[in-house]
From TrEMBL:
The gene is Ppef2_0. The lineage of its organism: Eukaryota, Metazoa, Chordata, Craniata, Vertebrata. Residues 542-577, 626-661, 666-701 form the EF-hand domain. Gene3D superfamilies: 3.60.21.10, EF-hand. It comes from Semnornis frantzii. InterPro entries: Calcineurin-like_PHP, EF-hand-dom_pair, EF_Hand_1_Ca_BS, EF_hand_dom, Metallo-depent_PP-like, PPP_dom, PPP_phosphatase, Ser/Thr-Pase_EF-hand_contain. This is Serine/threonine-protein phosphatase.
C-alpha cells in the first residue's frame, strides 16, 4: 500500500508538472504575441511621426487637414469643444427606457446604471456627454499625483487593468462592496480596449468619481490614449454603440483622458502608477507637468518643436521689422523695460510679474496655445505659475517622464534599459526601485500593466507589486484577476477571482473531488493551449516569405531540408518572440525519422490550414494576415471623423503625405483617378472592405 501511494504521488506530480510546463509555454506564446503587437503600434506611430516631420503642406488647407487628422485631440479650443459636444441640444425621446441621470449625481444613479448595464441596456448619448463634461470639470481641479489617506476610510482597494471587461468590475463590487465614504478605491489605468464593454466601465467609474470624489481615484494608463484606442478596439466600440453622436463622445473622452492624474500616493508611503519608473523618473517634475498637453504620449512633437526653434532664431537674429517680414505669424520679442531698484521690493516684484507674464504670452503665441485654454485656472497651471524660479524642462523631457510611468516594466537585473519588447518605456531593475523609494521615503510601489497568472506578483524583494484585475485576459482560464486592500498598516491583502461562467462551473466541480478537478483542469488547459498554438501558427504563416529566406540560409545545398535545431534558430531570427522553440517544436512540426525537416512542406501545411478558413491565394493571405491590424489602424487614422468611411478629401490629403515620403510625383487628377478606382460601389466614400480589397488586388497583381 505504501509503494502504491508513492507511485500515485509520483504520477500525480509528473502530471501536474506537465500541466505547469504546458501552461508556461502557453503563457509565453500569448504574452510574446501581445507585446509584438504593441511593437507594431509603436512602429506605425513612428512612421507617421516621420511623415509629419518631413511633410511640408503646400497650403493652409493641407496644414489644417493634417493638423486635424493627427492632432485631433488638440484641434479644439476650450469654447469650441464645449460647443461641439453640447449635450443640451440632444433630446431624449419618450421611447427611451434606459437609466436617466441628473446632476449632481447621487448613489441611486450609480446603482441604476449598474443594473441597466447588467441588463445590457445603453445610456443615452445626452447623458454620456453630460457625464463626460462634468468629469472633465472635476479632473481639471486635481493634481497630477493624487494623495489618499487610510485615516478617513477603513481601507483602500487598488484595482489594476480592467480592459473593457465589465464582468470583472461587477465581481469586484460584489465581493468588496461599492465605493462609499468608508470604502476608497484606486483604479490604476487601462480601463478600455480589448474588451467589449470599455465605455460602460468608463461610465461607471466616472459616475462613482463624481459621487465620491474623495474616495474614488483614477490613474491614467497607457491605453488612455486615443492613438492606442485606434488599434485596440475602443474607438470602434464607441462608434458602433453611438452611431449618431459617437464622434462627439470620442472627442470628449480624448480630452478627459489627458486630464486623468498620473499617479496616486497612499499615506505618503505607497506609490501607485500604471507602468513603472525609470532611472530618470522625478516625482517633483511629475507634480508640475501640465499633463493635459499630452493627448497622446506616443505622438512625437518634433515637427512642432523644430518649427518653433526656427521661429525663435528668426526673431532673435533679425531686427523687429525683418522678423515680422520673415515670420508674419510671430510676434517680435519686446525689449524688457529697465528693472526698478531692488530697494523698492514691491515695485520690483510688480515688474518681475509683468515681465514674466509678457514672456508667457509671447511663448503662448509661438506654440499656438489658444488663449481660451488659460481662461480657467487649473491645478497644474497654478503649480507652474507658482514655481517660476524652478527648472525649465523641454516638452520631450516631460513626455519621457509620462511615457516611462505608463509603459515601463520591472526586470530582475540591475540597471535601466529601453523596453524593446513593448517598444516604449523602459525596463527598471531593483537598484532603480531602491533609489526612488529611498529618495521619497516610500515603502513600496504598486503598478499594473502586465497580466499575471494569479492576478498579482511581487518582485524586487517585495518592493514592487503588480496587480492585474482583468481575469481570463488571453483565454478562458488563462489567468485570475485580483485586487489588493491596504489598511492603516499598509500590509497588502489580496482577493483573487475569475469572472466567467465556465470558470465558476470549474470551481464548483472542484468541490466534488479530485477526479472532477483534474478532468476539468486538463480540459481547460488543453483549450487554452490550442488557442495559443493556433495564434502562433497564424503568426508563422504571416511571415512565410521571410521564413523561407531564413531556412535557405541553413540549406546550403538546396535540398529543401534543414535540421530541427536550425529550424528553431531561423524561426526566432524572423519572429523575434523570444519563445523556447525547441520545446514548442513537437506542437508545431511533425516528427521526422532522420531529424531533418522539409520546410517547404511544413509551410504548405500552414498555408493549407489558413486557406481552409479563407479562400484566398496563400501568398496574398500571408500578406493580409501580417498587415491587417496595421491596415485597420491606418484606415482609422485617415478616417479622422471616425465615420467608418474615408472621404475623397481625406484620401487625397493622406496620399500627398505618403507620396512626399516615397518621392512619388502624382497630380491631383491622378490622385482623384486612384481614389475613384478604390471606390468600388461608387458611393463617394471608401469603407474598410474596399480599402482592404484594393490592397488585396494590388498584392494579387504583384
Amino acid at each position: 500500500a505504501f509503494k502504491a501511494a508513492v507511485l500515485i504521488q509520483q504520477w500525480y506530480r509528473r502530471y501536474v508538472a506537465r500541466l505547469e510546463m504546458r501552461r508556461r509555454c502557453t503563457w509565453r506564446i500569448f504574452q510574446s504575441i501581445e507585446y509584438a503587437c504593441e511593437q507594431d503600434q509603436i512602429k506605425l506611430h513612428n512612421f507617421f511621426s516621420y511623415l509629419m516631420d518631413h511633410f511640408t503642406p503646400s497650403s493652409s488647407k493641407e496644414r489644417d487637414f493634417i493638423s486635424r487628422m493627427f492632432v485631433s485631440g488638440e484641434s479644439f479650443k476650450e469654447a469650441e469643444l464645449e460647443k461641439y459636444c453640447d449635450y443640451e441640444s440632444i433630446e431624449v425621446p419618450d421611447s427611451y427606457t434606459g437609466p436617466h441621470l441628473s446632476f449632481p449625481l447621487l448613489p441611486d444613479h450609480a446603482t441604476a446604471l449598474l443594473e441597466a448595464f447588467k441588463q445590457k441596456q445603453q445610456l443615452h448619448a445626452r447623458y454620456v456627454l453630460n457625464l463626460l463634461h462634468e468629469t472633465r470639470k472635476h479632473l481639471k481641479q486635481l493634481p497630477n499625483i493624487s494623495h489618499v489617506s487610510t485615516c478617513y476610510s477603513e481601507e483602500v482597494t487598488v484595482c489594476g487593468d480592467l480592459h473593457g471587461q465589465l464582468d470583472d468590475l461587477f465581481l469586484i463590487f460584489h465581493k468588496n462592496g461599492l465605493p462609499s465614504p468608508s470604502k476608497s478605491y484606486v483604479f490604476n489605468g487601462d480601463f478600455v480596449d480589448r474588451g467589449k464593454q470599455s465605455l460602460e466601465i468608463l461610465i461607471v467609474l466616472f459616475t462613482f468619481l463624481l459621487i465620491y470624489p474623495k474616495e474614488v481615484h483614477l490613474n491614467r494608463g497607457n491605453h488612455e490614449d486615443h492613438m492606442v484606442n485606434l488599434r485596440y478596439g475602443f474607438t470602434k466600440e464607441v462608434m458602433q454603440k453611438y452611431k449618431v453622436h459617437g464622434k462627439k463622445i470620442l472627442k470628449m473622452i480624448q480630452n478627459v483622458f489627458c486630464w486623468l492624474p498620473l499617479a496616486t500616493l497612499i499615506d505618503q508611503k505607497v506609490l501607485i502608477l500604471h507602468g513603472g519608473i525609470s532611472d530618470t523618473t522625478d516625482l517633483d517634475m511629475l507634480e508640475k507637468i501640465q499633463r493635459h498637453k499630452f493627448i497622446s504620449v506616443l505622438r512625437g512633437k518634433k515637427r512642432k518643436e523644430s518649427n518653433r526653434n526656427v521661429e525663435v532664431e528668426e526673431v532673435n537674429g533679425e531686427s523687429n521689422a525683418e522678423a515680422e517680414e520673415a515670420a508674419p505669424g510671430v510676434c517680435p520679442q519686446p525689449r524688457p523695460a529697465q528693472a526698478p531698484s531692488m530697494a523698492n521690493r514691491q515695485e520690483f516684484s510688480r515688474w518681475v510679474r509683468q515681465t514674466v507674464q509678457e514672456q508667457i504670452e509671447r511663448c503662448r503665441r509661438l506654440v499656438d496655445v489658444s488663449e481660451s485654454e488659460s481662461e480657467e485656472l487649473t491645478y497644474s497651471s497654478t503649480v507652474s505659475l507658482a514655481d517660476l524660479d524652478g527648472p525649465c524642462w523641454t516638452r520631450q523631457e516631460e513626455c519621457k517622464q509620462i511615457l516611462d510611468i505608463l509603459w515601463s516594466d520591472p526586470m530582475p537585473q540591475e540597471g535601466c534599459r529601453a523596453n524593446t519588447v513593448r517598444g516604449g518605456g523602459c525596463y527598471f531593475g531593483p537598484d532603480v526601485t531602491g533609489k526612488i523609494l529611498e529618495k521619497h521615503n516610500l515603502q513600496f510601489l504598486i503598478r499594473s500593466h502586465e497580466c499575471k497568472q494569479d492576478g498579482y506578483e511581487f518582485c524586487h524583494k517585495r518592493k514592487v507589486l503588480t496587480i492585474f484585475s482583468a481575469s481570463n485576459y488571453y483565454e478562458i482560464g488563462s489567468n485570475r484577476g485580483a485586487y489588493v486592500k491596504l489598511g492603516p498598516d499598509l500590509v497588502p491583502h489580496f482577493v483573487q477571482y475569475q469572472a466567467n461562467k465556465t470558470a465558476h462551473m470549474l470551481t464548483m466541480t472542484q468541490r466534488q473531488g479530485f477526479a472532477g478537478q483534474t478532468c476539468n483542469r486538463e480540459t481547460l488547459e488543453t483549450s487554452e493551449k490550442e488557442s495559443a498554438f493556433r495564434a502562433l501558427r497564424e503568426k508563422l504563416f504571416a511571415h512565410t516569405s521571410a521564413l523561407i529566406n531564413a531556412f535557405k540560409a541553413y540549406d546550403k545545398d538546396n535540398t529543401g531540408r534543414i535540421t530541427l535545431s536550425s529550424w528553431a534558430t531561423a524561426v526566432e531570427s524572423v519572429l523575434h518572440l523570444g519563445l523556447p522553440w525547441r520545446m514548442l517544436r513537437p506542437q508545431l512540426v511533425r516528427s521526422t525519422a532522420d531529424g531533418l525537416l522539409e520546410y517547404r512542406s511544413w509551410l504548405d501545411d500552414l498555408a493549407m490550414e489558413q486557406r481552409s478558413q479563407e479562400h484566398i491565394q496563400s501568398s496574398l493571405l500571408e500578406v493580409i494576415y501580417r498587415n491587417r491590424s496595421n491596415l485597420e489602424t491606418i484606415f482609422r487614422i485617415i478616417d479622422r471623423d471616425h465615420s467608418g468611411l474615408i472621404s475623397f478629401e481625406e484620401f487625397h490629403q493622406t496620399w500627398k503625405l505618403f507620396s512626399s515620403h516615397m518621392n512619388v510625383e502624382l497630380t491631383d487628377d491622378g490622385i482623384s483617378d486612384l481614389v475613384r478606382s478604390i471606390d468600388f460601389n461608387k458611393d463617394g466614400n471608401i469603407d474598410f472592405n474596399e480599402f482592404l480589397e484594393a490592397f488585396r488586388l494590388v498584392r494579387q497583381t504583384e
